[in-house]
Specification:
Strand content: under 5%
Number of helices: 15
Structural class: mainly alpha
Shape: globular
Helix content: over 70%
Largest sheet: none
Number of strands: 0
Radius of gyration: 20 Å
Order of helices and strands: HHHHHHHHHHHHHHH
Distance between the termini: 12 Å
């Protein structure tokens, strides 16, 4: 039997990999701008402005959004005890997208402070509603896989139909804004947006990590977890809220980006097993690496044009996940 790597060693390796990827991504772009260039031109206001205010926030935002998507995917796979549970496949991202579409097409007159978070709040509400609906279906069907996937397809179809109606009645500017947003993009990344994302995603991710032990006990079943001292319903509700917050913020900022929350936790679970004390942090680092690579390719392969990062993650994640499923031989929970 193939031995598994040490979880602390895996975390250290992913940290090193992520650091290297950040350094490489910060050097790459439509404009050749490396650290060596900045060192040689320390007083070049144009070069430093591009690197500091355009490229660096985008690289860091890709890291933060990738962490959010992967952690939420890992939580839902553990909560539903289903390796195919994913925000995009189950319609959760579509729910968030629908509510953001409502905000774009029918903007509300909100105070300035609330207005900064309006899309995030809308995406959070939409994601939470779909999550609660999926959870209700899972409870009534006792985790039936086919029912779960069919429910996800139906929810996606309903949300996309509603989004289509909103797109039809929107103006040309709103339609273009929403079409680009639906394909996933980090092109609007700026320091204020990064600060907002970090202020919401980092606390939610840390609170999720604190639930790792309880999430492990939930894998034994609700009754067994209850006897071991877990408040099952409260724990599940907290995990649902945290997942909805992570997904909602990610969807609001970057649009719909698929497969990060599906592929990364699945791969980590195959390599390290199902202990969420290690699965969650490794998934966070792996998600950051995957989205950072995808975004770097999206903005450099067809430069000076740019591909939507959501298309790139689908091109990478779709075939890779199919390969993972084809070669899987061991139980998913290790």
């Amino acid at each position: 039997m193939r031995s598994r790597p040490s979880p602390p060693l895996a975390i250290a390796g992913l940290l090193v990999l992520l650091t290297l990827l950040v350094l490489v991504a910060a050097n790459m772009g439509a404009l050749t701008l490396s650290f060596l260039t900045l060192w040689r031109e320390p007083f070049s206001e144009r070069s430093w402005h591009i690197w500091l205010h355009i490229r660096l926030p985008r690289v860091l935002l890709a890291v933060v959004i990738g962490c959010a998507l992967a952690v939420s995917g890992a939580v839902m796979q553990g909560l539903f005890r289903n390796p195919l549970a994913d925000p995009s496949l189950l319609g959760i991202s579509s729910g968030g997208a629908l509510f953001v579409a409502l905000i774009i097409v029918m903007p509300l007159a909100l105070p300035t402070v609330i207005g900064l978070y309006s899309q995030m709040l809308a995406a959070f509400i939409g994601s939470l509603l779909v999550l609660l609906l999926i959870y209700a279906i899972i409870r009534s069907e006792r985790g039936n896989l086919s029912r779960l996937l069919l429910a996800g397809i139906a929810i996606n179809a309903l949300c996309m139909a509603a989004i289509g109606v909103l797109s039809y009645v929107s103006s040309d500017q709103q339609l273009r804004q929403f079409s680009l947003w639906m394909m996933g993009s980090l092109s609007q990344s700026q320091w204020p947006m990064l600060i907002i994302a970090v202020s919401l995603i980092l606390p939610a991710a840390l609170l999720t990590l604190r639930q790792a032990r309880r999430l492990n006990l939930l894998q034994l079943g609700d009754e067994e977890a209850h006897y071991l001292g877990v408040d099952v319903q409260r724990t599940k509700l907290q995990l649902l809220l945290l997942s909805a917050l992570l997904i909602g913020v990610a969807v609001a900022i970057s649009g719909v980006i698929g497969f990060v929350g599906l592929v990364v936790p699945h791969l980590v679970r195959m390599r390290l097993g199902g202990d969420h004390r290690w699965l969650l942090p490794c998934s966070a680092l792996g998600g950051a690496c995957l989205l950072l690579v995808s975004d770097t390719l999206a903005r450099t392969l067809v430069a000076p044009a740019e591909m939507p990062v959501g298309l790139m993650t689908s091109l990478i994640g779709g075939p890779y996940f199919l390969w993972l499923v084809m070669r899987q031989r061991e139980p998913i929970n290790g």
